[in-house]
Amino acid sequence: MYGFDELDKVGSARFAWGPAALVDLCIERIRSLRGDIGGAVFDTYLSAQKKLSEMDLPGATVVMAAMRAPLFEMPVDAGGRTVYALIPPTYIDDKALIGEVDAAVERVFGKATPIRAPFKTLAVLLGLAKYGRNNIAYVNSMGSYVRLRCYIATRQVESSYPAPIRPLEKDLGSDYLSDECRGCDICESACPTGAIENRGFMLDASRCMTLANEDAKKLPGWYEKSFSHCMVGCMRCQEACPMNDGKLQRIRLRSGLDKDQAAWVLNGSDDPEGRLEAGVKQVLKENGMSYLDDVFARNMKSLYNAGRL
Question: Which residue has the higher pLDDT, 250 or 42?
Fold first, then answer.
């Protein structure tokens, strides 16, 4: 078994760990808050999270990893000029970094199984992150531009976080809110939909642009044309947040839409042989975004109508 210094070798990641029982504790707490979170949001994003007892998954330690995640720019040929559609952090996997983190966790903690879990809540309880008022987890030196990954591991070790660990309060008070957020309303002012309220780190998920444009259903009536600025998701509150100053990395994707593909997506140009549609699907595949196929054209049109392309 390797020592904890193995984790330090992964320069683009931070780690925290604690008793595996925290997973069930967090899931029980979140289930009790279904009404506060919103039934539709809970059912879409949180209902698939299962307690360890429900998965029959033995383990002694829960390990959280926070990996640095960049913003991606996808080139689009808009009639002879190249513009870029923004894809926020976490929508495209860095498979090499994930593999490096997986290997490091197994070397240190024994057999480690990645699981779906309340990532942000666990990261906060383990001292790896703090909540922002925008309900996003902020990791020291990385800001909110991170991908969180959770493991159940066989090796039992003392928690990496020395402070007492206790579950979130029912009223989701300020104990887990970042100190920098106290008295600050920058993200609230930056959110055009009013989703961020003065309720600790709880927000009105029913008015969150990210949740709206990730869904293949028709965009809600409150979603105005000017709101769109990313191909999927939203960056407004994170871009405005002082805790993220200087922390965003950008990567330009090699694969993008040529002029004909862009015209087909944005204007519905003819494609009798399906060649353009197949080409667009190939672009999504090459960029690791095939899973966004059902929202891609709609969201790209929203970007175009907002003057972002």
Answer: 250
